[in-house]
Specification:
alpha+beta; Immunoglobulin-like; 3 domains; 4-stranded antiparallel sheet; 8 strands; about 55% helix
């Protein structure tokens, strides 16, 4: 405890000494009659981090005298290796000059230097001498509750203050954040998305900075994906995608966003795929299945077969199906997994059912007429779990009436037989309610077919 108190005292003393070293009142050339207004004002202590320095004069400025060093902004922190702040100088009108830093300023003390300006020929006797003055950008700390309160009250929030608050809020959590915690920030995310241009700089920064919590970076990616016509936003995506050492989830979703935006990264993805981890492969596989289905099928199948985690296996199965759902080999492989591989796998019955449901849906979305008979076979198989069989019937219900080429009378006969089998096979069901539910679904499909 004593060490903590001593530490706090030392930090406080350092701050006081540092503050004393910086004489904010130090200035030069402020008494010139040609000066109309300066912003920020000399000795100002409440300057925002995002600002534009402005200087207005009583005389017209010679446009030819404008150079990149007419206004120089310097961070007075002695620890800064590069104290000069880069930015853009613009002659806003004949008597006004502005300087906008490329990035928001950090908290601290700054010095403005304005020099080498000349008046137009008609006013050349009037001189603009060198101007120097200082101001302070204070450190502003808000809690996430402060931010939510300000949003609720329709108060404006300085972008960098908002970014600092979000970073600090997420930094206290582990890799996995409770959904309730993320839901709490919904008003903040709405604010950022609806005011993308205003907050673009911090959105891009929070997304591209690998030090930020990945669950803070992901919503920023979502906002960026809605503004892919903006060059800075697109450049940020490409920057992250090119960093192969970034987080796998971020890289995968970034790749997905680039593809959706029409950026073909399939060649680079092909190079990366073999050495990528299992998370990245689930994203890259889908991209390859779309761009290079035949070439990608074999390696996607290999990873699909060996994947031991349920969610990842589901994604790889989807990618494999995308390589050619109407292809005989793909259909045969999916059915083999459904009937043979999964029942013998290590997956928990619930996981087996979930994975099987996905396979059934892939079989149903093919354009093969025989898919309807395959779905009936699945619904008829008593060894499958309830949701797998129900899904097969759901797919029949939604897809069968719309199909105009299949022999519906033959399918109707198969369904009538299925109804009889369900009612005569009580051992296939753990309770009568499920048995009745499944049979009712079959009867409903038959009823629709009779009305077609």
């Amino acid at each position: 405890m004593k060490k903590l108190i001593v530490g706090i005292v030392l930090v406080s003393l350092y701050s006081l000494v540092y503050a004393k070293e910086i004489d904010i009142s130090k200035s030069k050339g402020l008494d010139q009659e040609v000066i109309i207004e300066l912003y920020p004002k000399p000795t100002a202590r409440d300057v925002e981090k995002s600002l534009t320095i402005k200087a207005e004069f009583a005389i017209e400025i010679d446009e030819k005298s404008i150079q990149k060093n007419n206004i120089k902004l310097k961070n007075l922190d002695k620890k800064k290796k590069k104290p000069i702040i880069k930015g853009d100088i613009i002659l806003t009108d004949s008597k006004s000059l502005s300087f906008t830093p490329h990035k928001a300023l950090e908290s601290g003390f700054y010095e403005v230097e304005i020099k080498s300006l000349k008046a137009i020929k008609s006013e050349k006797k009037k001189k603009i001498k060198e101007i120097k003055y200082r101001f302070e950008v204070p450190e502003v700390h808000l809690t996430i509750d402060d931010v939510l309160s300000d949003i609720n009250s329709s108060k404006s929030i300085e972008p960098n203050v908002l970014a600092d608050t979000l970073k600090a809020y997420y930094a206290q959590f582990d890799a996995d954040v409770n959904v309730a915690i993320t839901l709490k920030l919904t008003p903040v995310f709405i604010l950022l998305n609806e005011n993308y241009i205003t907050y673009k700089s911090i959105i891009l920064d929070m997304y591209t900075d690998k030090n930020n919590h990945k669950l803070l970076r992901l919503p920023m990616l979502e906002f960026i994906s809605d503004h892919m016509d903006d060059k800075e936003s697109l450049d940020a995506l490409i920057k992250v995608f090119n960093d192969k050492k970034d987080d796998s989830l971020i890289l995968g979703k970034t790749a997905k966003t680039l593809i959706k935006s029409g950026i073909d990264i399939s060649k680079e993805v092909s190079k990366r795929y073999p050495t990528s981890n299992s998370t990245l492969k689930t994203y890259y596989a889908k991209i390859l299945a779309y761009f290079n289905p035949k070439e990608a099928r074999e390696m996607i199948e290999k990873d699909m077969d060996s994947e031991m985690e349920g969610n990842k296996k589901i994604r790889l199965i989807r990618a494999f199906a995308d390589t050619g759902i109407d292809d005989d080999y793909v259909m045969s492989k999916l059915e083999d997994m459904l009937y043979n591989t999964l029942p013998k796998s290590h997956f928990h019955p619930v996981e087996q059912d979930i994975i099987s449901v996905g396979i059934v849906m892939h079989i149903a979305r093919s354009n093969r007429d025989d898919r309807f008979y395959r779905l009936i076979d699945i619904a008829s198989n008593g060894s499958f779990y309830r949701y797998t069989r129900s899904t097969a019937l759901d797919e029949l219900y939604y897809r069968l009436p719309k199909n105009i080429t299949v022999d519906k009378s033959a399918i109707k006969v198969r369904l009538q037989q299925l109804s009889q089998d369900i009612l005569s096979s009580p051992n296939d069901f753990k309770d009568e309610r499920y048995q009745k539910l499944l049979n009712d679904e079959v009867l409903q499909i038959i009823s629709i077919l009779e009305g077609v």
